[in-house]
Amino acid sequence: MTxxxxxxxxxxxxxxxxxxxQSPGATMTHEEKxxxxxxLDDMGVDIIEAGFPIASEGDFKAVSEIAQRSKNSRICGLxxxxxxxxxxxxxxxxxxxxxxxxxxxxxxxxHRAIPNLTQDEMAEKIHExxxxxxxxxxxxxxxxxxxxxxxxxxxxxxxxxxxxxxxxTINIPDTVGYTAPLESADLIKRLIETxxxxxxxxxxxxxHNDLGMATAxxxxxxxxxxxxxxxxxxxxxxxxxxxxxxxxxxAMRTRNDIMPYHTGIDTTKIMHIxxxxxTVSGFNVQFNKAIVGKNAFAHESGIHQxxxxxxxxxxxxxxxxxxxxxxxxxxLGKHSGRAALRDKLETLGYEIGDNQLKDIFxxxxxxxxxxxxxxxxxxxxxxxxxxxxxxxxxxxxKVTCGTGGQAESTVELEVDGQDTxxxxxxxxxxxxxxxxxxxxxxxxxHLQLYQVHAVTAGTDAQATVSVRLEEDGMIATGxxxxxxxxxxxxxxxxxxxxxxIVRRExxxxxADAREISYKDLT
Amino acid sequence: MTxxxxxxxxxxxxxxxxxxxQSPGATMTHEEKxxxxxxLDDMGVDIIEAGFPIASEGDFKAVSEIAQRSKNSRICGLxxxxxxxxxxxxxxxxxxxxxxxxxxxxxxxxHRAIPNLTQDEMAEKIHExxxxxxxxxxxxxxxxxxxxxxxxxxxxxxxxxxxxxxxxTINIPDTVGYTAPLESADLIKRLIETxxxxxxxxxxxxxHNDLGMATAxxxxxxxxxxxxxxxxxxxxxxxxxxxxxxxxxxAMRTRNDIMPYHTGIDTTKIMHIxxxxxTVSGFNVQFNKAIVGKNAFAHESGIHQxxxxxxxxxxxxxxxxxxxxxxxxxxLGKHSGRAALRDKLETLGYEIGDNQLKDIFxxxxxxxxxxxxxxxxxxxxxxxxxxxxxxxxxxxxKVTCGTGGQAESTVELEVDGQDTxxxxxxxxxxxxxxxxxxxxxxxxxHLQLYQVHAVTAGTDAQATVSVRLEEDGMIATGxxxxxxxxxxxxxxxxxxxxxxIVRRExxxxxADAREISYKDLT
Lengths: 522, 522
Prior knowledge:
Two copies of one chain form a homodimer.
Chain A lengths: L10 E4 L1 H5 L9 H14 L3 E5 L5 H13 L4 E7 L2 H11 L5 E8 L2 H4 L6 H18 L3 E6 L6 H13 L4 E6 L6 H14 L7 E6 L6 H11 L3 E4 L13 H10 L15 H12 L19 H8 L29 H10 L6 H17 L5 H7 L9 E11 L4 E9 L2 E9 L2 H12 L5 E9 L8 E9 L2 E9 L2 H23 L15
Helix pairs in contact in A: 2-3, 2-11, 3-4, 4-6, 6-7, 8-9, 16-17
Protein name (chains A, B): 2-isopropylmalate synthase
Subunit structure (chains A, B): Homodimer.
GO biological process, one term (chains A, B): L-leucine biosynthetic process
C-alpha cells in the first residue's frame, strides 16, 4: 500500500465465533472453532472475538485454546457488566500474545428497564466494570448495546465514563439492524466531535442486516470516523446476520477512490474461509450472495459474445482471483498422483502434512474410481473429514425403497467397538435408515435440519448431506459426502450423533451449555 | 397513508421476470411467469418488467399474455436501441391496460466502443429510438446502461436528448454494482438539478448487489430525488443479484422517520411471493437473508428469557405478520377437514377454487396418513404442483442401495401413454434412477443442479427435490416433494424433462431461446 496514512487503516474485528456462532442452528464444535480461528488469523483479521467465556465450559475452553494458539490476531472475549464475567473472560484470554476484554451493557431505555437501573446507577456500574477490566487487561472494548436507540445525552455521558475508566475501543452496536447510512455516519461523527477523550480511543461499528444495509452502514460509520468494523464471515449471525466481512473488505478495496481506507486482510483467502464457515455452521450461502455466492462472478454465457469477452472491464469490477477463486481449473482423475493432489489442495487453501495427504489420497482414489472427473468442489467436500466418529461407526447398510409401500433399511453399526444390526421400515429410505440407527442406539435427538447438495454437476456427483440434531437444548450438526445420498445421510446422522455424545460428556450433568443466554446481545 | 404528498410516493418497478429470470439457472416456464406476474400485480407493484420480447418467441408470448392479464400494474417490455426491438416490444405490450416501452443503450466509454459509435452518433441513435418508442407508447423509459461509469457531461447530454424525444422515465442503472450510497444520491441529485426538463420526468434507480450495497444505494437514490426503484423478489438476478424488493420496501416502512416515502406494496404478501420465486427459480434464500430468510425473525431461544419476552420491542423492529409470516400456527392432521385446509391455504396466500381444493385435499390426506403433523411448510410444498407432466409419468419404481456395491434401480415410466420398464445400476440410488429414466427416454440433458431440502423438521418430513437440466442452452428446473427422497428425485427429474420437452416444442428448430443475449445489460 502506498499513499496511505495510519489514519486510513480500518481494523477488522471478526465475531463469527461469538455473534455468528450464536445464530439458531449455527453451533460449531471445539475443533471447528479452532480451525476457523486459525483461518481468521491467517487471513489477517486484527481482532478475533472468540466467544463468551462465562457462558459455558465449552466456550471458555474454546476461547482459551484460541488465545494460546493465536499468531498475529488479538484475541477477544465477551463479558457482561459484572466482575464474574470479566474475571472469567480474562482467565480465558490472558495467555494470548495480544488480548482484549469486550464488556457491554444495554443503555437504551428499553434495556435499562430490564435490570431496572436508573441512569446514574447504570453509569456507576459502567465505571466500575470498565475500570476492573482495564486493571486486568491493557486493551478493553466497551459497547453500549442498542446505542442507536439510546438518548443522545446519555449515550455521550456513558461513553465518556467508559473512556475515563480505561476503555481503548468504543463500539457502537446497531443491535436490531435499525440504522441507515447517513444516520450511521452522523452518529459516529457527532460522538467523536462531542465526547471528551474520543480522540484517544478507536470507535467501532457493529451492524446487523435486518433491513439489508449492514455493509453500507458499516462503511458509512468508517466515513464518519470509525476505524474498526465488526463483522462475520458470510454475514453469519442471528436473524438476518451481521455485517459480512467479505463485503466491507472488498467494497473498500474496489471503491478505494471514494473510500480511501485499507485493511490487513489477504482477500485471496476469502473463498476458502467462506466455504469452511458455510460447512461447519450448516448455513449455506445463497447463489446470489455478494462476493462469495456461487453466482457472484458468474455471467450468463450469452453476454460473453456481446461485451464480456471483448472487454473484461465492461462487467467485472473485481477479479475472481482477488477473492481466491481459481479460474478455470482442470479436474483431477484416477490417474492423478499425490503431487497433483497436494498442489491442487494448496491452491484451494488447504495446507496438509504428509500423513494427512496419505489418508486423503486413499479417499481421493476411491472417489476417482467412481467419478470420472474430480472437480475442486469434490475435493473441498472430501476435505470435510469426519472428526468425531468414535462412538458410533457405520459398518454396512442396505436399503430398499420405491413406490410400492414403505422403505426398508438394514444398518450395521459399531457402537463402542461392538457390532449390532437392525432393520426398520419408514416413509422413505432416509426415515427408515434413521429409525434403524435409533433402534441400535436409542436417543431422543430431534432432527431439525436435513439438507442435500450435489457437490458438482452430473448424476455421478457426490452429495453432501447436512444433518442438525437437537437434544435437551444442545445442537450438533453432522456432514458427510458420498455418491450415494442414502449412505451420506446415514453417515451425516451418525456424525451428528457422535458430536452430541461428545458434547454431552464435555458438558456433564447440570452444566447446560445454553444456561447463559447472550444471543444477540451486541 | 396520511400526511404524505404525491412527492413522497416511490414507484416499485419489479424486474424479477426480466433481469431476475436471466440469472444463470433461474429460467422460469411460461406458466410460472404468469403466476409470478399475477402475484406481483396483486401485491401492488407499480410496473412489472415482464421480459424482453424480441429475445425469443417464449419471451414475446410471456410478455404478451402478462400484458393482457394485467389488472393494476403497468406492464413493461425491454428493447435495445433499434426499431425492430421497439416494434416487437410494443407488439407484446400494447394490449395491457397500462403499458411501457423500456429502451436502453450503453453510454459509458467501454460500451460505446462495442458498436463503435462516436458520442454524436450515439446521441442521434438515442433521439431516433426514443422518439420512435414514444410514437408507439405514451409511457417510455430510457436507460443509459453503465451510467455510473459514463462521463458526466455526456450523461447529461444524452438524458436531455431522451427527455426531449419523449421519455417519461429516466432510469440510472448501476450495471456492475459499483456505486455507494453517497455517490448514488449525489448522482441523481445533480442530474435533476442539471438536466433541462428533468423535473418533467421520473428518475429511477437500478442497482446491483456486487458490493452488498444495492438496498442502501437504491434508498440513497430516492433521498437524492429518484421516485422509482427497480428491484426483484429475493434480490434475484445475475451475479450477486438486483436490489431486493422486500428490503427497500420494508426499510422505507420501518424507518419512515428518516425516509418519509411510501409505496403501494401490500407487505403482507412478501413471504408468499418470496417462497414462490425461490421455488420456481431454484434459487434458495439463505437462512440469514434480510426480511425473507428462515432466520430473519428467529431469535435464539435463550434470549427470550432475558429481553425478548419482557418487551418485544427490545429486539423486533418489524413484526413477522407485516411480511405475511403467520405467527405460531397449529399444524393440520389426518382429522382436519376441507374447510380447515382451505382456511390454512388462504392464510398462506393461496386462493383456490373448489375443484382445485378437491385435488389438493386428496394429496393432503395422503400426506397426513404418512405424517402425524402437517405444517405450513408441508402445505406450501404440496402446492408445488407438477404442471407439465404430460409426456413422461412415473408409474412405479424400486431401488436398492447401500454400502455393498452399486445401487440398483428399476423404473417404470409411461411415455406418451406407453409403459416401459428399465433397470440400471449406478453410484447411489439417484444416479441409478436417473440412468434408468434415461434408458427409457434417451436424452442428452445435463444435470446442472440437484438439491434436497427437508420441508419441516423430523425424519418423517417431506423432502423437496430440485433438479436443473440443461440441453443445448435450454434450461429447465423440476421440483417434487415426497417423504421418500429417491421417489421425489425421480419425479423432480421427470418434471424437469417434461418441461424441457415442452420448451423444445415451443421453440422449434432454429429458434433458439438464447439466441439474443441481453443478460445483465441493464
